[in-house]
Amino acid sequence: MATLTESRKNTLRRAIQAIVGKSAVVSDPEELLVYESDGLTLFRALADFVVFPTSTEQVAALVRLANQEGLPFVARGAGTGLSGGCLPAEGGLVISLSRMTRIVEVDYDNQLAVVEPGLVNLHLSWAVGPRGYYYAPDPSSQQACTIGGNIANNSGGPHTLKYGVTTNHVLGLEVVLPDGEVVWLGGKMRDPQGYDLVGIFVGSEGTFGIATKIVVRLLRKPQAVKTILAVFDEIEKASEAVSAIIGRGLVPAALEMIDQVTIQAVEDAFGCGYPRDAAAALLIELDGLAAGIDAQAERVGAACVEAGAREVRTAKDEAERQLLWKGRKSAFGAYGRVSPAYLVMDGVIPRTKLPYVLRRVNEIVAAANLRVGNVFHAGDGNLHPNILYDPRRPGEEERVVQAGAEILKVCAEVGGSISGEHGIGLEKMDYMPFIFSPADLATMHRVKEAFNPRGLCNPGKIFPTKKSCVEVGPAYRAHPIEEQGLAQRF
Amino acid sequence: MQPALLDKVRGIVGSEYVLTGVELSPYVLEGRTPEAAVFPGSVEEVSHVLALASEAGVAVTPWGGGTKISIGAPPTRLGIVLGLRRLNRLLEHEPGDLTATAQGGITLEALQAALGARGQWFSLDPAFGREATLGGILAANASGPRRHLYGTARDLLIGVAVVSADGAVVRGGGKVVKNVAGYDLPKLYIGSFGTLGVIVEATVKLRPLPDDDRLVLAGFERLKDCGQAVRLVLTSDLIPSAVDLLDGEALRGLGLAAGAGVGGALLLGFDGMREQVKWQCEEAKRVVSEAGPVEHRVLEAYAREETWRLVREVGRRAFADPAAVLQLAVLPTQVTEVVEQAGVVAQRNGLKAAFAAHAAVGVVTAVLADGGDSAQPVIATLREWRELVRAAGGHAVLERAPLAVKEQVAVWEPPGAAFRIMERIKAQLDPKGVLNPGRFVGGI
Ligand SMILES: Cc1cc2nc3c(=O)[nH]c(=O)nc-3n(C[C@H](O)[C@H](O)[C@H](O)COP(=O)(O)OP(=O)(O)OC[C@H]3O[C@@H](n4cnc5c(N)ncnc54)[C@H](O)[C@@H]3O)c2cc1C
Question: Counting C-beta atoms within 10 Å of the first and last residue's C-beta, which end of chain A has fewer, N or C?
Answer without folding.
Answer: N
